[in-house]
Amino acid sequence: MNSTFKGTLTMKHSLAIAWCVALLSATDTQAQNWPQFRGNRAGIAADDPKLPETWSATENIAWKIDIPGRSWSSPVVWGNHVFVVTAINAAQPNPTLNAVGTYLARSLGGPMTGADLTKPTDEHRWVLYDVDFQSGKVRWERAIHTAVPPQTTHQKNSYASETPVTDGERVYVYVGHLGLFAFDLTGKPVWSKPMTAPKMRMGWGSAASPVLHDGRLFIVNDNDERSYLAAFDARTGNELWRADRLDEGSNWSTPFVWQHALRTEIVTTGSKKVRSYDTNGKLLWELAGMTSIHAVTPIASHGLLFVSSGYFPDPLRPTYAIRPGASGDISLKGDERTNAFITWSHPTLASAYPSPLVIGDQYYTLMDRGFVTSNDAQTGKEIYGRQRIAVDSGTFSASPWSYNGKIFAVSEDGDTFVMQAGPELKVLGRNPLGEMTLASPAIANGSLIMRTASKLYRIARTPAP
């Protein structure tokens, strides 16, 4: 064997080893961190025998701490850091919150709007906490902003519902009516981009979380004045570009970074249209046919993008499975269920608030009224129709998650139902925390980080006393 050929083989072998090491490292990093809303895989956590499947407010609790204020922002995890955001009313820092059946309230004697009863007059303090993953001690807290909230908010919302995102060097906090803020992992403010508070539909407030990709932060601010998608440099906070969405009104869905073999897309959903952009803000394709109120975030699996919109009073509550490579208007026409880029669709499959899951070859929908459905992810064929989780399961707003072949869904009453993934719905148990819960959890390092109305829990298998 000549030396050149031998050297080539050695180089290829080295590159192969490096690629494998990088892949294993990336997999390990993903298993140890949960950097954004629903993690890196839309609610799917790496299987881990250490992850708990049963718990209560006292069982399998590594720690729990009180978090003041009212906020439905989800926690995120990086290494030994758990980041969580809250909005604290100076006059009532520890409000009592309970699930409300209809989420309708009469605002100042006016029409039924779903907004809180009165416009806030008390000063609020928005705070970012860094909690030690191992001990549960607050490592530091930083005030993001202090002011009287500029608007009302829905009973099902809060003044800090957007989930932060982290890259392991900084944590980025976005609040739709305040702006975008960056801190390093010691809590030092790095930069901030204050923003004005646009008018939101019926005074319901904002909720769409930021996403991070390749050094850029992407935010969608869909409102009733001037909606837009914008990209910011994560290092400096400088706005890189802005794409106006002038015909789009208020929405509450987090954008989704869809990476596939052809390109990377920033997918945004709304009550008017689904729109996908390239990473420089160019519109790639759009799809009409959504519900009149939209909150569900897209997911991707099996080479497909899954988009759903299911506000329950609307007759059309669609789910679409979209293949890569689309351009222009790909809306279905008439009675169409498929076209060149829509692999399958269903007119009434979607949920109003929880985002869907794909486990193996099955696509699962958790309805906010406590039903679960399953369809074949690649064809849309029904595996089982609407199955009630329990007669007293209550309502659901948080998105479901999965590990170890199980599906977990937490109700607004704080009960997490454990279900077996597979061709039939099998409810295996119920794990109560006894307090209202609207936030989706984080899963990392063999633990579940859950937020209730007043507490943050690290749930992990603990030795029997």
Map the helices and strands.
Layout: H1 3-32, E1 61-66, E2 76-78, E3 81-89, E4 124-132, E5 138-147, E6 165-166, E7 170-175, E8 179-184, E9 189-194, E10 211-213, E11 216-221, E12 228-233, E13 239-244, E14 256-259, E15 264-268, E16 273-277, E17 283-288, E18 299-301, E19 304-308, E20 319-322, E21 328-329, E22 342-346, E23 357-359, E24 362-366, E25 371-376, E26 382-388, E27 401-403, E28 406-410, E29 415-420, E30 426-432, E31 442-444, E32 447-451, E33 455-459
Parallel strand pairs: 17-21
Antiparallel strand pairs: 1-33, 2-3, 3-4, 4-5, 6-7, 7-8, 8-9, 10-11, 11-12, 12-13, 14-15, 15-16, 16-17, 18-19, 19-20, 20-22, 23-24, 24-25, 25-26, 27-28, 28-29, 29-30, 31-32, 32-33
